[in-house]
DNA sequence: TTAAAAAGTTAATCTAGTTTAACATTATTT
DNA sequence: AAATAATGTTAAACTAGATTAACTTTTTAA
């Protein structure tokens, strides 16, 4: 039973096992609640203005989470590759319209926790509450540090940090999206890269 | 028993009751683990380079959490007043040296969860794990939105947002700290305020 | 295999916000 | 009440990064 989904979401099970150990019963319950879905490149998992119904774990592929401001400019908050999460936590917990879009940059397979079933899961598998608490703690800590980096580092240093911190991501996405993630224009990132070449 | 601390940390108990309902036994257990401490204006709750041992709930007073960069510049991440939290989550969960300072801007009373006792609390009162998960979810969502605002809004608009969102905080702290929180210089904030006066 | 679309580069001009430095005002301490 | 420290203001000169626009390279699709 659930054999097919179990194979597909194996990376999620491995990931969870880094935090908590599930019994077979718990694992079966989890499998009955977690959804698997495959998206094509360019498809939206979430759109600005919609309510975020899912917390998504990336099994395979790559997504970007971004906000489009009043001037039409796109601001990328997050790239999510294998073993990372994507969702608008604010919209998910309040069930209010989201400020963010999540779009697939490659063919992407997700393990999805639906808002309607996550409470049941927490109640029936308290370990999962522990698991999510820890995952969110990590994400929150990373987010705080990013705010400070954005204040204290120059665009050049932020780029260097990004390169060293996420070398795998840089190879999978166009440069103009890196610029957006760093909060600068593609033209300026181009300038920075040229300068870094000259430095060496 | 615990009568004294119960009185002192009453605001924390009220706050928790917005999320979960504790039995009397659970409350007593909580009281036996939570610390109460009063700090004077100017005292540090946490210093950059130290390991963050506490998650602190502000019962009364006001703190700032900030990072000092290599050039000696101070970057304020967070002001915490009554019913809000302060801690370097990153350092707390990894028990690695912190990048942040937490300093009291007024005489401040804190309810303190020590790293050594929080695991026990989670185990003995699973509801508290639920409580903290929800608190952190909210903080994480706020942090993500702040990153986007910092990218998409001008300094002027960020200040207007701050004013409307945290009118009480603005009245309690010097203007140059607001500037630091917004990621701009005090001189430029001064300019912005003058311009806003002229606008009306 | 070629056209079209998407992504990246370059350089000139411009601007939001910084730096510096001098001065003004408000709190705090004696 | 005076002295000192802390906070806030103003203005001129400066700079990191944006904008605009023309161009090149790479990728995708017909």
From TrEMBL, chains A, B:
Database matches in Gene3D superfamilies: Jelly Rolls (2.60.120.10)
Domain Cyclic nucleotide-binding: 37-123
InterPro entries tied to this protein: cNMP-bd_dom, cNMP-bd_dom_sf, RmlC-like_jellyroll
Family annotation (SUPFAM superfamilies): cAMP-binding domain-like (SSF51206)
Pfam families given in the database record: cNMP_binding
Chain segments annotated as coiled-coil in the UniProt record: none
Name of the featured protein: cAMP-binding protein
Species in which this protein is naturally found: Algibacter mikhailovii
Lineage: Bacteria, Pseudomonadati, Bacteroidota, Flavobacteriia, Flavobacteriales
């Amino acid at each position: 039973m659930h054999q097919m989904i179990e194979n597909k979401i194996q990376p999620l099970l491995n990931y969870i096992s880094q935090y908590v150990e599930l019994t077979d019963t718990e694992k079966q319950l989890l499998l009955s609640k977690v959804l698997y879905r495959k998206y094509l490149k360019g498809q939206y998992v979430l759109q600005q203005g919609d309510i975020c119904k899912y917390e998504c774990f990336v099994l395979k592929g790559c997504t970007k989470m971004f906000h489009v401001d009043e001037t039409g400019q796109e601001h990328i908050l997050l790239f999510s590759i294998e073993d990372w999460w994507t969702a608008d936590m604010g919209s998910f917990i309040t069930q209010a319209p989201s400020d963010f879009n999540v779009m697939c940059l490659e063919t992407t397979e997700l393990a999805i926790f639906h808002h309607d079933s996550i409470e049941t899961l927490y109640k029936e598998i308290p370990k999962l509450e522990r698991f999510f608490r820890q995952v969110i703690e990590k994400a929150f800590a990373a987010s705080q540090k990013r705010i400070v980096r954005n204040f204290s580092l120059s665009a050049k240093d932020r780029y260097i940090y990004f390169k060293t911190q996420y070398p795998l991501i840089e190879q999978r996405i166009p440069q103009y999206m890196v610029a957006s993630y760093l909060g600068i224009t593609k033209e300026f990132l181009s300038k920075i890269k040229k300068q870094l070449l000259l430095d060496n």
